[in-house]
Amino acid sequence: MFDTVLLGRWSRFGGFGAAKPVDIHDAQHAIEAVGLTGFERRPIDTLSVGQFQRVLFARLLLQDADLVLLDEPFAAIDAKTVADLMMLIQRWRTEKRTVVCVLHDLDQVRREFPNSLLLARELVLAVMVLILRRHGYPPPQVNFLGKAATFNLMYAFPLLLLSDGSGWISSLAAIFGWAFAGWGTTLYWWAGVLYVVQVRRLVRADATAD
User: Fold this and answer.
1) N or C: which end of the chain has fewer CB within 10 A?
2) Calpha distance 54→2 (Å, rounded)
């Protein structure tokens, strides 16, 4: 597990370099910050979902980035882990870092994130969830198209930020950034349409059964 956290310093020592004592020290400190002291030599595949998420946050701490992008960081983890990781996010806020977080839990967004953007697709999904509840069904699970859309958008944002400059690197970043943004937006809406189709089929099946 320790080596996974240490990958947060990959940009410094690369594939052929070696971690310096300061990197080892900072990695240990990051592991302590996420509450995994004593797990340093544990194989990744023996960790729970919540423990692995803590490992990823420790790696983020080691990266020490000004912009932090998080895709569903609280999915399938326990309440204690959510509370601990939220403390780290609040710490990044006090350090004046920018944290962009993709979430589907509207209650948590209202409670924990003062600045938020509700996409129109999410409003459609909120209506679909209400319809499903009326018919006794749980909320729909996130499908692979939704994940692919988020993947594209999360790559688009830093590339578009990089494109706000001059030179050939900025030009190249703009091309790829807008490409990722276009694909992400298309897949995002496509996933929303699939949710509507699934809900319609379930409602029709209930009506037929009645």
Assistant:
1) C
2) 12
**For the chain, what is the total number of helices (H) and then of strands (E)?**
9, 2
Mean pLDDT estimate for the chain: 85
How far apart CA 145 and CA 37 sit, in angstroms, is: 37
Looking at the chain, the whole-number percentage of residues with pLDDT higher than 90 is: 31
Own/partner contacts of 64-67, CB < 8 Å, gap of 24 or more, are 64/8, 65/97, 66/97, 66/98, 67/97, 67/98, 67/100, 67/158, 67/161
CB of 53 closer than 8 Å to CB of 85: yes
| Residue 204, strand partner residues | none
Nearest-10 Cα torsion for 192, 195, 199, 200: 60
pLDDT value at position 55?
95
Q: In the beta sheet, which residues pair with residue 191? A: none
Distance CA 189, CA 40 (A): 41
- Count the alpha carbons within 13 Å of 15 in the hemisphere toward its beta carbon: 0
- pLDDT recorded at residue 209: 67
CB contact at 8 A, 23 and 10: no
10 Å CB burial of residue 128 (0-12, 13-18, 19+) is buried
